[in-house]
Amino acid sequence: MGKKRKINVHIIGGGQIGSTLARQLSEDGCAVTLVDTDAYVVNNLSTALDIICYRGNGASYATLQEVGAESSDIFISVTDSDELNILACLTAHMMGAKHTVARVRNLEYAKHAGFYRDQLGLSMTINPELAAAREISRVLRLPSATRVELLAKGRAELVETTLPAHSPLCGLPLNQVGQVLGVQLLICAVVRGEEITIPTGDFILKAGDVLYLTGAASVFHRAFTKLGLPVKPTHSVLVAGASRISYYLAEQLKGEGVHVTVVEEAHEKAVEFCRNNPECAVMNDNAIAYFDSMSDADLRSTDAFVSLTANDELNVVSAMYAASLKIPKVISRLSSNSKLKILQKDDRITTVSQEDTAVDLILGYARSLMNAESHDAVESLYRLRDGRIEFLEFCITEASPHLGQPIREWRIRANTLLAYIIRDGKTIIPRGDDVIRPGDRVLVVTTHKQLGHLEDIFDTAREGGML
């Protein structure tokens, strides 16, 4: 396996995002220092994780001097305060930190993220609510999916969906799927119960399997139509909660011609949302009560319900109620550490966590920096199923292994798969005779942890002296 360069990471803020990042980056071999003002958080994380924890103000020059922020390879500030995050990153940057990442959530600040990056030296700004809204918007464009990720700068997609009992794929081995679909798609991972499989050609599909498919974005609608899965465009969306995510989601959906109705119980928040989003219909009501007031015709004309309140319990209850009313697409926000994540087992309901989305974005960026000095380093990273499956994009260079060698001759580690090759803007589902060339982008699917280079996917014991 390729050796990763030991890097120093400083994290300001030990909340859900900060603590998850600290755990994952520590497991990736980074030297992690975490700063938080809360003594309980500091004591708890110092006991639970193999990291250095320090109690203090992460925006203070004195504190940053004490924790050695000037030596930071990646400095990440993810407290609840945008101002503190920006100031902490600016101070660390001036002290010598190589890369800085700030969580910026305020609507006004978020509009000027480019300025903070270009003028204040921020390497990356993360807006968890905006990222979550984009994720929801992608799912709404493909109603049968429970998750949609854009890959290779939008040239390909990664789609999660559940195989229904009536699907023609049930009982088929994977090597016959292409004949049924008639398009270039690859089922690159299957979740059955608690078991995750990177399948081979003789794997038999069953009803209820959660499938992860990759391919060109243009082919999914055709494939889902052949599978008998809903592909009806979304025209009307009901949103519970006038939250930041709701604001961003409404902005995106109205640009696509989708009618958005927002239900908010707090009068002041409803008025403010209406003022900022005049194109939306805003109802001052409880989501459950509003459902009861809707006519059958209104329910039939509602294509999707999205519950985005700050209350996980309310989101779960309203999502389950919406599903019972046969609303075609139901999405619920859940905190990353919510005990209600059991809802993810209900294939009628898609769950989204802005914390998990933010963590994945930052981890993908960090993983690329960790290997930036090497060839074929990670370009982007997608973690699903609580990190049990990783989808990694690599850019192929002249120094990459096995250039020009047919893929059938590769000796790839178990539970690892080459899912696609992007070449000259076209998506290639790899076959045995295909090869990789400099300039290609490839997607690797694996259940292994800490892959940082393309060479990490090969079974060196089986390859002998080939590498």
Task: Briefly say what this structure is.
With 467 residues, this protein is an alpha/beta fold. The protein has 16 helices and 22 strands. Helix 2 links the parallel strand 2 and strand 3.
Structural overview:
This protein is of the alpha/beta class and 467 residues long. It folds into three domains: 8-126, NAD(P)-binding Rossmann-like Domain (Rossmann fold), CATH 3.40.50; 236-352, 3-Layer(aba) Sandwich (Rossmann fold); 357-463, Alpha-Beta Plaits (2-Layer Sandwich), CATH 3.30.70.1450. Helix content is 31%, strand content 24%. The chain has helices at 16-27, 39-48, 61-66, 82-95, 107-110, 113-119, 128-141, 177-181, 220-226, 244-255, 267-276, 287-293, 296-300, 312-324, 354-370, 460-463, and strands at residues 8-12, 31-36, 52-55, 74-77, 99-103, 124-126, 147-151, 156-162, 185-192, 195-197, 210-216, 236-240, 259-263, 281-283, 304-307, 329-333, 349-352, 378-384, 389-395, 416-423, 426-428, 441-446. The strands form four sheets. Strands 3-2-1-4-5-6 form a six-stranded parallel sheet, sandwiched between helices. The radius of gyration is 23 Å and the shape is globular. 45% of the residues are buried.
- SS elements, strand count: 22
Q: Please indicate the percent range of residues in DSSP E strands (runs of 2 or more).
A: 15-25%
Distance between the termini: 11 Å
Main sheet overview: 6 strands, parallel
What is the class of the largest domain in the CATH system?
A: Alpha Beta
Note poorly predicted spans: 463-467
Task: Estimate percent helicity.
Answer: 25-40%
CATH superfamily caption of the largest domain: NAD(P)-binding Rossmann-like Domain
Q: What is the correct CATH architecture of the largest domain?
A: 3-Layer(aba) Sandwich
Chain-averaged pLDDT: 86
Strand adjacency order, main sheet = 3-2-1-4-5-6
Compute the number of structural domains.
3
Number of helices: 16
How large, in whole angstroms, is the Cα Rg?
Answer: 23 Å
Query: Could you say which overall geometry the principal axes of the C-alpha atoms support?
Result: globular
* Class derived from helix and strand content: alpha/beta
CATH-defined topology of the largest domain: Rossmann fold
